[in-house]
Design a protein that fits this description.
- The protein is built from 14 helices and 14 strands.
- It is of the alpha+beta class.
- It is globular, with a radius of gyration of 26 Å.
- It has a 5-stranded antiparallel beta sheet with strand order 1-2-3-5-4, covered by helices on one side. It has a 4-stranded parallel beta sheet with strand order 12-13-11-14. Strands 6-8-9 form a 3-stranded antiparallel beta sheet.
- The protein folds into 3 domains: 69 residues, 2-Layer Sandwich (Phosphorylase Kinase, domain 1); 234 residues, Alpha-Beta Complex (Aminoglycoside 3'-phosphotransferase, Chain: A, domain 2); 131 residues, no CATH class.
- The relative contact order is 0.09.
- 46% of the residues lie in helices and 15% in strands.
Amino acid sequence: MLKEMGKPAPLSIHPLPQSGSSRIYFRCIYSQGESLVASYNPDVKENIAHLTFTNHFKQVGLPVPAILAKNSSFEYFILEDAGNETLLDIRLKEGLSKRVKGFYHKAVEDLVRFQTEGIKGLNLTVAFPAERFHKRSIMWDLNYFKYYFVKTNNLIFDENLLENDFEQLSARLIGADSEFFMYRDFQARNIMVKDGRLSYIDFQGGRKGPLQYDVVSLLYQAKANLPDSFREELLKAYFEHLEKHHKGQKTGFLKTYPLFIYFRLMQVLGAYGYRGLYQHKAHFLQSIPYAINSLKEILLKHPVTELAGLNRIFEQIIALKNFDFIPLNPEKLTVTLSSFSYKKSGIPVDVTENGGGFVFDCRALPNPGRIDELKMFTGLQTPVINYLKEKPVMKEFLDNVFGIVDQSVDNYLHRGFNSLMVSFGCTGGKHRSVFSAERLRSHLTEKYGDRVEVRLAHIQLDREGLLP
């Protein structure tokens, strides 16, 4: 394919991490300091939008990676290499250093240029999936939120009341001035940093739309977790740049700005639900608690009591407890243990980048849930503990588990790894799996001491409010 596009064979080809889409990227190394990026995407309409927008933005002087070649099917592109590091990477490593703040201020300045200069002469007939921000596109995102986050987490809501709120919210969002370029996903993960300069990617879903959405996307990006004071600083800088390009927008902007924050957070939670809870992608799972925290903050500043259906859902979201993600200790091996119900909660998802670990099925073991005098207790309580301790098959099962897990722990400690996941499942997730997870925690703590950090979650007990 490289030959068809007039490019020589590289010395080596390396796959790049995928994000949320079906696009696949590869870095093609030609020599020391010389590389290109090859991409494949089967969605030709999206690729045509990418090509058209890229060429236009290059013409008006906006910093985007050039498309150097394409094949005849519009599925394969060769692009300039924008580097390995994103602004989000740097933000997470450096905090709010002077350099990070400078990059964010530059991004805000460039955003205004995309919105006001980038729209001039842009061929929007190729925009995909929509030419402009309209009610249908709003409802796509709101329903994404409803089906992939609200329903996935079994939140309680009145469907009719929620649809009324969706109608009211979409009408107010549509009322914003929408004659600008809406980048659609202007966030630090799509801002590349190379040799101290910023370049911008992932704008192919852009369309004509309002200013607020992209500002919110940058300032309220969940994992970037910008402090409110810095958001205010950036918003002030944004208005100063906007006034130079398009005067008199600030008042109208601020009228609907809080609603766009809610709208973007709902779109993001829908994406995190789909990409994280359904597709099990670690980055999106790790981002959920940050998005929930952002929702808590905005509810305090701008309550939405007039949207009763949404407000009830928001209150349930900020009360969710099963999305806490504590970063791993790089100096220790963290063993993440959990008990779960095969029937009710399913196998736990690994929120690290490692793809999972051991899953032990406890359903062949004696079941206290079938004994009248025990079924109301849990694997944390004495009657069930004593019952299972007395079963030889339980001891045999755990001895086998300890041997298998110890082999991995010993190996991971020797190799300097920092994560191992072990899960125990049973039918109801309250007896055998809980007992087993507790026994393994005691075993690991006793055998390895402070060389390992053991984190234990009883998923079904937590969901049913049965934890002590």
